[in-house]
Specification:
This protein is an alpha/beta fold. It has 7 helices and 12 strands. The chain has a 5-stranded mixed β-sheet, with helices on both faces. Strands 5-6-8 form a 3-stranded mixed β-sheet. β5 and β6 form a beta hairpin. α1 crosses α5 and α5 packs across α6.
Length: 239
């Protein structure tokens, strides 16, 4: 699920966008060590495909919490813990996190002013967005993603559980890096633009069944992104 980025204006001029910037990875406490390692492995794979692995560091913040992340009243202090970016927006009636509000925090993140970066946040909390029962991830091009493993846990096939979690990260991080490039004729528009090819940027609607099928396609073709999206992913970092 992708949303359009906002352009930051300073001194009445647009700040030039430099795609070469670090990836900040963090996760909520409910993520296992295996899932953490899986996410880092997947990020490395994507950067390898983009031919920028040596240029873009992945900085693992783990369960990021500054020492004073909670005030004396026990309330979360804005923007200094992973809890603020995810758990703060938990809706107790739905027992889900408001993914749109959580992702909006990425745009007003003061840390990005100091050090431009991409955010990849992994959680096991269930997510939702307006007019949906749930979403498995939300991504903003050029900015970051919040992705949930909740709907992929507990598959009978442990290998497939692992691969579907990776598949969702390929998808959301692909959106962060500008995929798919609109203006093509092989796109569909369901909760945003998505690729129609056998590609990680396809849109899935049935969880986990569509993701399982996508994994089978990936293993048959030997490719994560289709040829067009692989080309566009590499071009994204050449701007």
């Amino acid at each position: 699920m992708a949303e359009e980025p906002r352009i930051r204006i300073i001194s009445s001029r647009t700040v030039p966008f430099n795609p070469i910037r670090p990836v900040y990875f963090m996760h909520t406490p409910d993520i296992t060590e295996e899932e953490r390692q899986l996410a880092l492995e997947t990020l490395e794979e994507i950067l390898d495909i983009a031919n920028v692995r040596r240029q873009i560091p992945i900085i693992d913040f783990g369960v990021w919490r500054e020492p004073n992340y909670q005030g004396s009243d026990g309330q979360l202090v804005p923007h200094i813990s992973v809890d603020w970016y995810v758990n703060k927006w938990f809706n107790p009636q739905r027992k889900q996190v408001d993914a749109d509000e959580a992702a909006r925090q990425l745009f007003i993140d003061p840390w990005n002013e100091k050090q431009p970066h991409y955010d990849v946040i992994l959680t096991a909390q269930d997510l939702y967005a307006p007019n949906t029962n749930f979403v498995v991830g939300v991504a903003h091009p050029r900015r970051g993603t919040i992705t949930s493993v909740r709907r992929f846990r507990g598959l009978h096939d442990r290998r497939m559980e692992r691969e579907t979690k990776k598949q969702e990260l390929y998808h959301e991080v692909g959106h962060v890096f500008g995929l798919p490039n609109e203006g093509r004729g092989d796109l569909e528009y369901s909760l945003g633009a998505h690729c129609n090819n056998k590609c990680a940027v396809r849109q899935g609607l049935s969880v986990p069944h569509d993701w399982i099928n996508f994994v089978h396609d990936r293993e048959r073709t030997g490719q994560i992104y289709c040829a067009t999206d692989t080309r566009d992913l590499r071009n994204y970092f050449r701007r």
